[in-house]
Amino acid sequence: MAYTLRPLSLAELLDRTFFLYRRHFLLFVGIAAIPNLFGLAFGIARLLITPNLIGILVTLFGALASMFVILVTTALAQGATVIAVSQIQLDRPTNVAEAFNDIRGRLGELLLLMFNVGIRVVIGLICLIIPGIIMALMYSLAVPVAVLERTRISESLSRSADLTRGHRGRIFLIYLLLFVITVIGGLLWQVPEVIVIRLVVGTYDPNHLPVWAQILSQAGNFATQSVFGPVATIALALVYYDERVRKEAFDLTHMMQQLEQAGASRMA
């Protein structure tokens, strides 16, 4: 049964977020896990190649490459998750492969968009932090806009700013709550990890961990990102639709047309 599109309170948005996540757990975790597997493989490969062997310059290149891998995996996971949420809202069957297939050809644009947003937020954080937070809230819907409306970078940014205007406070609360949940989820892995390392090594020094312990930490990051990462994207996809319902009387007919047009553009 397709969900009714109507204005939702903050509590209703969060309730629907966790409802969709629980009901389609394997779908969302699968979408997040596949890109993150590449990040995990890359991270382990870097650990197994020592700096003495490859030199400082290559180590620097590895760090930059890691940032690029993180950007790519985030763009893939967020874009595919937005598609999956939209299909579920219409009560259409979907799976991991179809979600990724629907953003095929858009990866480059999403990367540039996320890099653009990241630069703006970093500059804002340098300018006394508050401007950076405002930027993050303004552009929080840029990815859903780009994926579903197939807009260019500048259009996605301005559209996100328009849609979030007047409701950035609740987006901040959503971010805050999900951040707390993610931290708690990370601790569920990190605490046992520290205990195991202490028992085996006899001490725990984050700067001088054996390779196996660093790989264990990488695996923990992968699990945390795969399990908890989709929640924020699901919430923001729902916020996107909620803002369009509030400001543009957006309904399921428009939503269906939007996804069909996006699919037609991909196939063209």
Summarize the model shown.
The chain is mostly helical and 268 residues long.
Question: How would you portray this structure in words?
Answer:
- With 268 residues, the protein is mostly helical.
- The chain has helices spanning 10-23, 25-48, 51-89, 96-101, 107-126, 130-138, 142-149, 153-164, 168-201, 211-248, 252-267.
- It has one domain.
- Helix content is 82%, strand content 0%.
- The longest helix is centred in the N-terminal third of the chain and has 39 residues, at 51-89.
- It is globular, with a radius of gyration of 20 Å.
- The model has no long low-confidence stretch (mean pLDDT 86).
Describe the protein's topology.
Layout: H1 10-23, H2 25-48, H3 51-89, H4 96-101, H5 107-126, H6 130-138, H7 142-149, H8 153-164, H9 168-201, H10 211-248, H11 252-267
List keywords for this structure.
268 residues; mainly alpha; globular
The percentage helix is: over 70%
Query: Domains counted in the coordinates: how many?
Result: 1
> What is Rg?
20 Å
Helix/strand class: mainly alpha
